[in-house]
Amino acid sequence: MTITTTKRGLAGLAAAGLAYRLLLRRRILGWGATRGEAEGTLPGDELLAHPDVVSTRAITIAAPPSAVWPWLVQMGPGERGGAYTYDWIENLLGLDMHSVDTILPRFQHVEPGDVVPDARGVPWLRVERVEPERVLAFRSTDGDWVWTFVLVEQAGWTRLLSRNRIRRGGSLGGRLLLGLMTPGSLVMERKMLLGIRERAERLAAQAEAEVEAL
Known about the structure:
The protein is an alpha+beta fold. It has helices at about 5-30, 35-40, 65-75, 85-90, 170-214; strands at about 55-60, 115, 125-130, 135-140, 145-155, 155-165. Strands 1-6-5-4-3-2 form a 6-stranded antiparallel beta sheet. The chain starts with a helix and ends with a helix.
């Protein structure tokens, strides 16, 4: 390989990296979110200062926050509600996720300090902030990831925002791994948000039908 070929290859990689940052990265990290939502401050941001990566993904749900909240608080592996995404992918990774279509009463009460274990029963996420039907924030037990859900009521509907703040560490391996995971996280989180919307809208419709039947 000549020096000229090497330079061209490096220039091509640099151009591809620039194109990704300018054209794709914002779309990947901000799927469904407005610029104001993606760039604005949200509750839970204070739990991890100076993150290396921030994603803000969002969806509008034709249901009130009261129909969205129950699906969020029961999320998790094992006997919990799953993640409403591609279970088969989650379980290839050994995460023991089983997305449910019903509300699980035993997981509906959540308080700061509660811990969600991983598939092995080891503490994984700690509940850091709870404002019922408005804010639910988790922090990983290693302190390098904060995941916050924010619910904004809009004329009886809900705008659901999911924000991840991640500190990747200074190692080259950590940076490469996070770079590879970012596009994959969009696939999984998009499916999760769509899954929550489907379940919340169905729950709201059932509640409305029950009221009309009285």
